[in-house]
């Protein structure tokens, strides 16, 4: 047993029993000075003393367990990771709290869990309110990235001033599909006297610009399409700063962090629009019936980049198919979601396991299609595939995500992915939902939680819970 200091817990035990130090020392058959040292963490708690505590008071020694402390530390790290502007709490401070004041630590964990539950319930209620939800946003202020996502959603995921500027620059720089990286490198040197260097080292970022030396340093692991995207992002900051700042200033964002995220998002939007210019890309997408892999080959970019661009083609005079995009990892964490339409992505309790975006992990690199129907009766066509990135050598874990692109079933005939699907049969669509905690499908075999506000009605005459019902 390693040295374990449990002074506060020992002192709490004495106070709960209404004992003096002298009385407790006598009960444990140790000297008062030794007990005083134990309570002040000057001496570690030993196994013989623990056994005497159990014998004298019938106390479960788990109260003094290292395992219990480790669990509390893990719970506290989770709870205190969301402390806000005060910054993260160090592990040393958390460990001290768990060791010295476990009751306070458990109270904090309990408060955090109740707060999470209330936020989930609030989000579930907001998801049913539509436009009336503005009056309730003070109950659950969004995170900065959620504010930025909602800002792009409010714009229909289309920023016309950046799209138009990107098309003009594409023509001015004499760029061509599949050769954008070389063209942008030459443009940066000619227009901004900027050089490109590829550097490798521990923790090397994808892109770093040194304004003094006029050098952009890129990771050597980037593919040509990624190089083009990083160079285009830097051009956005060099040339489109006034537009980006103006759009950000007009956005209803509540914090500097959200505004900084919005600026980066707008720079990325410009980069995508520059390497995949609106008119040329839309024409190819229509000609190829939105075949994502053929578009990726045609323009020399990746599958995910094409999906991103397809979700932004909403110019009033030349609209593409209105898509929505989502990116998830194996654990179900949603790292990207954007929509040009009113499709609802749940913020509560994950998404639906019947969605083909999760099935994609079992067939890496293969495009999966799915006709799916939501509880409100609306049907959608979904395309999903995994994307992987490995920027290191042997033994370095790769990043793997599943990317899904969806559209209303009314547009499915324009897509090559509608081949072989019976879009006219409503029963052929897979019934999915936005997430168990907001989904109303009572008899779903994959349900993990009851809908919020609808407890389980247990039927004692069957071997399983009865369908979820309104109390």
Blueprint (SSEs and pairs):
Blueprint lengths: L6 H10 L4 H8 L3 H8 L7 H11 L8 H15 L10 H10 L1 H25 L17 H11 L5 H13 L7 H13 L2 E4 L8 E4 L4 E4 L5 H16 L1 H9 L6 H20 L2 H10 L4 H8 L3 H8 L3 E2 L2 E2 L4 E5 L5 E6 L16 H4 L8 E6 L5 E11 L9 E10 L21 E2 L40
Parallel strand pairs: 1-3, 8-11
Antiparallel strand pairs: 2-3, 4-5, 6-7, 6-10, 8-9, 9-10
Helix pairs in contact: 2-3, 5-6, 5-7, 6-7, 8-13, 9-13, 10-11, 11-13, 12-13, 15-16
How many strand segments? Answer: 11
Which bin fits the share of residues in helices?
Answer: 40-55%
**What separation lies between the terminal Cα atoms?**
51 Å
> Can you list the strand order of the major beta sheet?
7-6-10-9-8-11
CATH topology title of the domain at 142-318 = Arc Repressor Mutant, subunit A
GO molecular function: DNA binding; DNA-binding transcription factor activity
Keywords: DNA-binding, Transcription, Transcription regulation
Domain HTH cro/C1-type: 10-64
GO cellular component, one term: cytosol
